[in-house]
Amino acid sequence: MRLREWIVNTVIAAAFKMACKLDVQGVDSIPATGPAILITNHTSLFEGPLYYVMLRPRRTIALAKIELWDHLATRIIMEAWGSIPVKRKGMDMKAIRDCFNVLDEGNFLCIAPEGTRSKTGALKEALPGTTFFATRQGVPIYPMVQWGLRELPANLKRLKRTSVHIRFGEPFIVEKPGGGKLSAADRKLMANEMMYRLADLLPEEFRGHYSEDSMRSEKYIKPFQRDPQA
């Protein structure tokens, strides 16, 4: 680990330890090595740093809005973690290539399918872009969610520790039955199926767009068969 990364991780881990009471379940399901995609809900600026330091020494690289490179403090953190800057308007082909490189190098790629933060803490409708990486053959997808971090800024002002709950779900893969090119409709349905895996890990009040089963299907999702020797 590079010195800058070690310093950033140490400071952030200590800050979370002082500011939060963590309730974590299922982290042991995350493998120590091998490529994987981690999908998560997005309600706070703090979940990315929390996941990053918690999952170490697993190599995890996340997408982050390019604006975070405009400020010295956040740029130092993004560069220390090797985060991938992404332009939020249009197709960012460089970011897409960088994401595939993360998987090709055997690392973890962390993505928030909603694309932007939820202002209410409840799940928003997913964007279909995640499916570009999710369909990489043989790469498992691990759902992980958190709730509680939205209260952190207010609790810090009151010098109160924040209860943060983190849940990891069982891995799965996504593929189109019978193969073939994915249509826009395929990608939308596939993204929804992935989001229901997040919703299942959250309390009902945070399931938002996926609180009802009207869009639920199991057309594209398949259980991931773990290697018993791994």
In short:
The protein has seven helices and nine strands, in the order αββαβαβαβαβαββαβ. The chain has 230 residues and is α/β, with parallel strands linked by helices. The protein has a single domain (3-223), classed as Glycerol-3-phosphate (1)-acyltransferase, CATH 3.40.1130.
Can you describe this structure?
- It is a single chain.
- The chain is built from seven helices and nine strands; from the N terminus they run αββαβαβαβαβαββαβ.
- It is globular, with a radius of gyration of 17 Å.
- The protein has a single domain (3-223), classed as Glycerol-3-phosphate (1)-acyltransferase (3-Layer(aba) Sandwich).
- The model has no long low-confidence stretch (mean pLDDT 90).
- It has a seven-stranded mixed beta sheet, with helices on both faces. Strands 8-9 form a two-stranded antiparallel ribbon.
- With 230 residues, it is of the alpha/beta class.
Structure keywords:
globular; single chain; Glycerol-3-phosphate (1)-acyltransferase; alpha/beta; two-stranded antiparallel ribbon; 32% helix; 230 residues; 9 strands
Write the topology of this structure:
Blueprint (H helix, E strand, L loop, with lengths): L2 H17 E6 L10 E5 L6 H9 L4 E6 L6 H10 L2 E3 L6 H12 L3 E4 L19 H4 L6 E7 L4 H6 L4 E7 L3 E3 L9 H16 L21 E3 L7
Parallel strand pairs: 1-7, 2-5, 2-6, 3-4, 3-5
Antiparallel strand pairs: 6-7, 8-9
Principal-axis shape equals globular
CATH level 3 topology: Glycerol-3-phosphate (1)-acyltransferase
User: Portion of residues in helices?
Assistant: 25-40%
Q: Quickly give the structural class.
A: alpha/beta
Low-confidence stretches: none
- End-to-end CA span: 24 Å
How are the strands of the biggest sheet laid out side by side?
A: 1-7-6-2-5-3-4
Q: How many domains, in number, for the residues? A: 1
